[in-house]
Amino acid sequence: MIRYFFEDTSFKFSGRRNNSTWLKNAVTEEGKKLGDVNIIFCSDPYLLEINKQYLGHDYYTDVITFDYCENDIVSGDVFISVDTVRDNAAFYKAEFKDELSRVMVHGVLHLLGYDDHTEPDQKTMRSKEDYYLAKRVGE
Questions:
Q1: Cβ(37)–Cβ(3) under 8 Å?
Q2: From CA 138, how far away is CA 79, in angstroms rounded?
Q3: Does the residue 56 lie in any domain?
Q4: How far apart are CA 55 and CA 34, in angstroms?
Q5: Closest Cα partner for 18 from 137, 139, 105, 103?
Q6: pLDDT tens per residue across span 40-87
Q7: Would 29 be classed as within a structural domain?
Q8: Which of 26, 29, 77, 134 is most buried, judging by how many CB atoms fall within 10 Å of its CB?
């Protein structure tokens, strides 16, 4: 089950049912089963504190994923800074909803075992993001 939460933000997310179906389909297509995935929309300061406390990083980011997967069951927390997603959308000249979808599937791809620490891994991650973005439902 995918659940949505909001911390330190007035952001409202619509289209939860279609979004959940889309992300669940991505998990299934990767050969895994959906467990409990929490998507937490938050502010830059909120995510910065998580980044400092849990990862020892003192910088802003758009997404942090905590992986609680066991065997083939995909579970975890995906924290998303709405502020940084908005800034990135403007920077990349993308629609906010498209950038937000990219960040959500990026977090889920981390739960599926994809990484983005090396250039080849980044290329694979971007390719998977693009692939699943093309499969969004309810557009």
A1: yes
A2: 23
A3: yes
A4: 25
A5: 137
A6: 999 999 999 999 999 999 999 999 999 999 999 999 999 999 999 999
A7: yes
A8: 26
Tokens of 72: 């083939």
Asked whether residue 129 is domain-assigned, the answer is yes
Contacts of 53 (CB under 8 A, 6+ apart): none
Token pair listed for 121: 């891994």
The pairs formed by 68-72 with CB atoms below 8 angstroms and a separation of 24 or more are: 68/35, 68/36, 69/32, 69/35, 69/111, 70/35, 72/31, 72/32, 72/33
If you ran DSSP here, which 8-state letter would residue 53 be given?
A: I
Domain count, the chain: 1
Residue 139 lies in a domain: no
**C-beta atoms surrounding 78 within 10 Å:** 24
**pLDDT at site 137:** 67
Predicted TM-score of the model (pTM): 0.94
**Structural domain that includes position 101:** 2-133
In one-letter notation, the amino acid at residue 81 is S
